[in-house]
């Protein structure tokens, strides 16, 4: 069975990306390894007193994201595709590539939002950096209408 890494950001097109990955996994007899990478600074806020850390906010956010990942995992299993999930904090590209190596993955499946090059200059593109730095194939699914 081939492992497929599927990074999830819980954006508006997540359902479309999951559906496309499920179809791909069925075609190649693959297992989907969901991953969501949350920023390391999720519990920090800036206010009158500068940066403050709120661990209860971080814990609440992580619990909600784990629940959403678990729900997606159950939905994928409902389609007859093996699945597992992982949530980590850190730099998305590095964590995803480490997870792919750890799982001896055959593919990484990513969505492309079809944004302009100007967007990439100022914000960056995780899909673009993964396709550049990955040692395994990255399947890019168009997510724009």
Structure write-up:
The chain is of the alpha/beta class. It has one domain: 3-Layer(aba) Sandwich (Rossmann fold). The protein has five helices and seven strands. The longest helix has 24 residues, at 55-78. The radius of gyration is 16 Å and the shape is globular. Mean pLDDT is 85; it is low at 118-124.
Layout of strands and helices, then pairs:
Layout: E1 2-7, H1 14-28, E2 30-38, E3 44-47, E4 50-53, H2 55-78, E5 83-89, H3 92-102, E6 107-112, H4 117-122, H5 126-133, E7 138-142
Structure in a nutshell:
Residues 1-142 form the UspA domain. With 145 residues, the protein is α/β, with parallel strands linked by helices.
Q: At the third CATH level, what is the topology name?
A: Rossmann fold
Shape, principal axes of CA atoms: globular
- Rounded to an integer in angstroms, the radius of gyration calculated over CA atoms is 16 Å
Let me know the average pLDDT: 85
C-alpha termini separation: 32 Å
**What number of structural domains do the residues give?**
1
User: What is the number of helical segments per DSSP (H or I, 4+ residues)?
Assistant: 5
Q: Based on helices, strands and strand pairing, what is the structural class?
A: alpha/beta
Poorly predicted tracts of residues? 118-124
H/E topology pattern: EHEEEHEHEHHE
Tell me what portion of residues adopts beta-strand conformation: 25-35%
The CATH class, by name, is Alpha Beta
- CATH architecture title: 3-Layer(aba) Sandwich
The CATH superfamily label reads HUPs
Number of β-strand runs? 7
Spatial order of the strands forming the largest sheet: 5-2-1-6-7
Strand count, sense and closure of the main sheet?
Answer: 5 strands, parallel
Proportion of helical residues? 40-55%
